[in-house]
């Protein structure tokens, strides 16, 4: 396992709640709520996942890995949080799903299996690692030419700080306080630059929003806070 591009404090934060990953009302409730949106976005952009080889980078407890596998994808989920991965393995087994969960860094898997995957997903991870550009590069290496890479992260500006930290963590308490560090948020232009440098072409960008009155998440064009990106590996 190569954990050089990992913050042990971040890993510890997620591992301390490892048993609660599949509690839809627990600390990961927002991820449960947005997973159907993320899944639909992926299939809207590329079509059916059935039969595709997918790497879920920063898979956590498997909240996205499992529904992708249920739709017929051959999923490899990777993470550096061991207790979280054990929760993912146990839940997949109980759900009757075959998912290859591995405790390995994206960079190490990319060196081991370059171009092996049709699709790579990297959701809510980039803002939690010391060198997000290196993860983007690894994702570009993992996907085959013409394949798709999906990122989800948080923009860096005052509005994002107000909504993602003050609002979500302290006022609405959608997430535990301290989940995010605003200094680690990533502007779309930065992500686009890293993607281009990694052989990826950014095809589409959309925003992810929360309505506190209806308690519903939805997608819209505004990318000033949370956003999702669809990239394609350039053919060469």
From TrEMBL:
GO terms for biological process: methylation. Pathway: Cofactor biosynthesis; ubiquinone biosynthesis. S-adenosyl-L-methionine binds at residues 38, 58, 79, 123. It comes from the Bacteria. It is an enzyme of class 2 (transferase). Its EC number is 2.1.1.222, 2.1.1.64. GO terms for molecular function: 2-polyprenyl-6-hydroxyphenol methylase activity; 3-demethylubiquinol 3-O-methyltransferase activity. The keyword Cytoplasm does not apply. It holds the Pfam family Methyltransf_23. Gene3D superfamilies: Vaccinia Virus protein VP39. CDD domains: AdoMet_MTases (cd02440). It catalyses: a 3-demethylubiquinol + S-adenosyl-L-methionine = a ubiquinol + S-adenosyl-L-homocysteine + H(+); a 3-(all-trans-polyprenyl)benzene-1,2-diol + S-adenosyl-L-methionine = a 2-methoxy-6-(all-trans-polyprenyl)phenol + S-adenosyl-L-homocysteine + H(+). InterPro entries: SAM-dependent_MTases_sf, UbiG_MeTrfase. Keywords: Methyltransferase, S-adenosyl-L-methionine, Transferase, Ubiquinone biosynthesis. Coiled coil: none annotated. The keyword tRNA processing does not apply. O-methyltransferase that catalyzes the 2 O-methylation steps in the ubiquinone biosynthetic pathway. Belongs to the methyltransferase superfamily. UbiG/COQ3 family. This is Ubiquinone biosynthesis O-methyltransferase.
């Amino acid at each position: 396992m190569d954990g050089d591009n990992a913050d042990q404090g971040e890993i510890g934060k997620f591992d301390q709640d490892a048993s609660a990953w599949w509690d839809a009302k627990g600390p990961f409730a927002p991820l449960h709520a947005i997973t159907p949106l993320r899944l639909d976005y992926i299939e809207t952009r590329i079509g059916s996942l059935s039969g595709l080889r997918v790497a879920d980078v920063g898979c956590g407890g498997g909240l996205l890995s499992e529904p992708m596998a249920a739709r017929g994808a051959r999923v490899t989920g990777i993470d550096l949080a061991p207790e979280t991965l054990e929760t993912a393995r146990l839940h997949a087994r109980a759900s009757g799903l075959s998912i290859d969960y591995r405790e390995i860094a994206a960079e190490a898997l990319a060196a081991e299996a370059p171009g092996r995957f049709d699709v790579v997903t990297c959701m809510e991870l980039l803002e939690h690692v010391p060198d997000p550009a290196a993860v983007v590069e690894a994702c570009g290496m993992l996907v085959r030419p013409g394949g798709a890479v999906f990122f989800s992260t948080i923009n860096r500006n005052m509005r994002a700080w107000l909504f993602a930290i003050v609002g979500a963590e302290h006022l609405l308490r959608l997430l535990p306080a301290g989940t995010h560090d605003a200094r680690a948020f990533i502007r779309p232009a930065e992500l686009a630059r890293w993607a281009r440098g990694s052989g990826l072409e950014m095809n589409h960008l959309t925003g992810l929003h929360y309505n506190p009155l209806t308690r519903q998440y939805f997608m819209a064009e505004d990318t000033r806070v949370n956003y999702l990106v669809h990239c394609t590996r350039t053919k060469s």
